[in-house]
Design brief:
CATH topology of the largest domain in chain B: Rna Polymerase Sigma Factor, Chain: A
Radius of gyration of chain B: 19 Å
Largest sheet of chain A: none
Distance between the termini of chain A: 98 Å
Number of strands of chain A: 0
Order of helices and strands of chain B: HHHHHHHHHH
Shape of chain B: elongated
Strand content of chain B: under 5%
Helix content of chain A: 55-70%
CATH class of the largest domain in chain B: Mainly Alpha
Structural class of chain A: mainly alpha
Largest interface: A-B, 34 and 49 residues
Oligomer: heterodimer
Helix content of chain B: 55-70%
Distance between the termini of chain B: 34 Å
Chain lengths: 115, 195
């Protein structure tokens, strides 16, 4: 009986608390709204970067990409038209596989014979 | 309640719109959520307006920052906010307890006998608020969510990260403790006059 009476009593306190709603001030509402707008993501800003942008980033930005392109161009140029002095150190005939005494497919022959 | 032009959208839809850069959604969410967060913080912190305002601003800032990565269908926005708000309040109360003790808890209106007749309801709310501050944090949180905010036990269980039976146990123990604290003040608060 006592418990039941106590429950009724507490309900009156809870009802009073529910009616006594603490309201935020206008100033707080304004501050929070300003913060919400300041923190809001910009529309479309989160789109994934394209293929070229990802490649450029992987190579280290524009500087890295330009360095790589220059190195490639040098390699092609040296291959097509080697500088005159280079043949003194590296002669075409001596650079052949036979001259080096290396047969890159010898292991393959052996595998073929063994079936 | 047509608080805003987007009242037909639920909170999750509004948050998704906010993450896409919709300013109207930002305003609607502010209008909708600020009073709830503030009310909960105010009650958890024993009626300290300044601290409740700080917690509200902090909790909502976390929501704005979580919006772009929000996974829809995983948690209700309000459930997430109640949890963040309660955790922020508990952190503050622990810091406060370490520095100043329970003296900061506002006293009920003991010094105004006439208030019992003229502002009985307000006095009761204030007395309850003071009594809530005597409860352990988790009991207080459960009682506020259940009996003042009016949430369901399963929702409270989600907010507090416990099961429903644990919620029932917390609210039952909380109510018993409140009854014990408030029983000595019934006459003073005009309780007898109501029955």
């Amino acid at each position: 009986m006592t418990e039941r009476k106590d429950d009724i009593g507490l309900d009156a306190f809870f009802a009073a608390a529910r009616d006594d709603v603490p309201l935020p001030s206008g100033d707080l509402m304004a501050r929070i709204q300003a913060e919400a707008l300041a923190e809001m993501p910009v529309a479309g800003a989160r789109a994934a970067p394209g293929f070229w942008a990802q490649l450029r980033d992987a190579l280290g930005g524009w500087k890295g990409a330009a360095g790589l392109a220059a190195a490639c161009a040098c390699g092609v140029w040296i291959g097509i038209s080697p500088p005159e002095g280079l043949s003194d150190y590296w002669q075409g005939a001596e650079a052949g596989l036979g001259a080096l005494g290396l047969d890159p497919v010898s292991g393959y022959d052996l595998a073929l014979f063994e079936g | 309640m047509p608080y805003d032009a987007m009242s037909e959208c639920d909170d999750e839809e509004l948050l998704a719109a906010y993450a896409r850069g919709d300013a109207a959604a930002a305003r609607a969410l502010t209008t909708r959520l600020t009073p709830r967060v503030f009310g909960h913080a105010y009650r958890m912190l024993g009626g300290d307006r300044a601290e409740a305002e700080d917690v509200t601003q902090d909790a909502l800032l976390r929501l704005w920052r979580a919006a772009p990565d929000w996974r829809s269908g995983e948690a209700k926005v309000t459930t997430w906010l109640y949890r963040v708000t309660a955790n922020l309040c508990i952190d503050r109360m622990r810091k406060r307890r370490g520095s100043t003790d329970i003296d900061q808890v506002p006293e009920p209106v003991d010094d105004a006998p006439s208030a019992a007749q003229t502002m009985q309801e307000a006095a009761r709310a204030e007395a309850l608020q003071a009594a809530l501050m005597d409860l352990p944090e988790r009991q207080r949180q459960a009682v506020i969510l259940r009996h003042i905010e009016g949430l369901s036990n399963p929702e409270i269980a989600q907010i507090m990260d416990i099961n429903v039976r644990a919620v029932e146990s917390l609210t039952a123990r909380g109510k018993r403790a409140l009854e014990a604290i408030l029983s000595g003040r019934r006459d003073e608060l005009g309780y007898e006059d109501d029955d």
